Amino acid sequence: xxxxxxxxxxxxxxxxxxxxxxxxxxxxxxxxxxxxxxxxxxxxxxxxxxxxxxxxxxxxxxxxxxxxxxxxxxxxxxxxxxxxxxxxxxxxxxxxxxxxxxxxxxxxxxx
Length: 111
Hints:
Elements: H1 8-11, H2 20-56, H3 64-80, H4 85-110
Helix pairs in contact: 2-4, 3-4
């Protein structure tokens, strides 16, 4: 019986045994990803406390001077770690934007 060329199951190669080197790299990546998530969660727990403090003290949600200093510091750290500083800055700006949103919500609850 001839195979139907539109039968995708018939066109797929049989699953090969996983490459142990690749599997090791992937386990390392998975562990690093988990650590990143845990670190981000801890960072947001602390910035949430900062937001509540700022709201109670009638401080603005954003601090452009602090943000500028943090970006410069993390760009230097990225360069020292051979990581693209542009990527690092984009990543930090994304986090800062989210933190500011949380601080604005805390401020709005205290108004």
